[in-house]
Amino acid sequence: MATSGEAEDSRAWSVLIVCTANICRSPVAAGLLEVHMAGTGISVSSAGTRALIDHPPVPEAVDYVRRRTGTTPRTRGTPLTAQLVRGRGLILTMTEQQRAEVVRIAPGALRRVFTLRQFVRLAPHLPPGASYATVCMLAEGVARCRALAGPARDGEDDIVDPYGGPPTLYEESFALIARASAGIAAVLRARLAVGDTERASPVGDPEPMPPAW
């Protein structure tokens, strides 16, 4: 079991992305964000609240990431655990229900857990020019923006699960993930002292990159 010091060290520069089975949405988000953050020292991993353990991503997820980045998702179905949550500085989920599940198993992570779209919605309310020493500190800064941003409209912060649906549903869901991932990467790069040797990301965005808050 990791000590508190080890957990703090691993939280400094790490992001965990969570969905249900860890074979569809979270592998796409992790694959895209990993490419966006190349060269920064930030690690990206994923897990599922009801993971299909050691299962590879679905073909639709693999194809989408390959088309957009030229890379193949390396994730395998990994179950979400409290220890995993405690060791990550920023935890991003697909839905508010999943966010609640993360907080249920690791209450101490409350201020470090957001849905992907929620993080992007809150981040513009960060103090102008503020910078943060670690991913964990940035996450806690974004958490303080909740009151300023106000509550989300119904479903505004969620990304629907396309598993088993038609191809159009996969594309719509993955496009939302791609836009959110680009926005999250912009925030991380703008607000953290990270390397910038690979700022020209090979990820194609469905819409222009959001501003670097």
CATH-scheme architecture: 3-Layer(aba) Sandwich
Residues in β-strands, percent: 5-15%
Cα end-to-end separation: 37 Å
* Tally of separate helices: 9
Name the CATH class.
Alpha Beta
Largest sheet geometry: 4 strands, parallel
If strands are numbered along the chain, what order do they take across the biggest sheet?
2-1-3-4
How many domain units?
1
Mean pLDDT: 89
H-E string: HEHEHHEHEHHHH
**Helix percentage range:** 40-55%
Description:
The chain is an alpha/beta fold and 213 residues long. The protein has a single domain (4-191), classed as Rossmann fold (3-Layer(aba) Sandwich), CATH 3.40.50. The protein has nine helices and four strands; from the N terminus they run H-E-H-E-H-H-E-H-E-H-H-H-H. The protein has helices spanning 4-11, 25-36, 59-69, 82-86, 96-105, 116-122, 135-143, 146-149, 167-191, and strands spanning 14-19, 43-48, 90-93, 113-115. It has a four-stranded parallel β-sheet with strand order 2-1-3-4, sandwiched between helices. Helix 2 packs parallel to helix 3 (59-69), helix 2 runs parallel beside helix 9 (167-191) and helix 6 packs across helix 9 (167-191). The termini are far apart. The model is unreliable at 196-202 and 204-213 (pLDDT under 50).
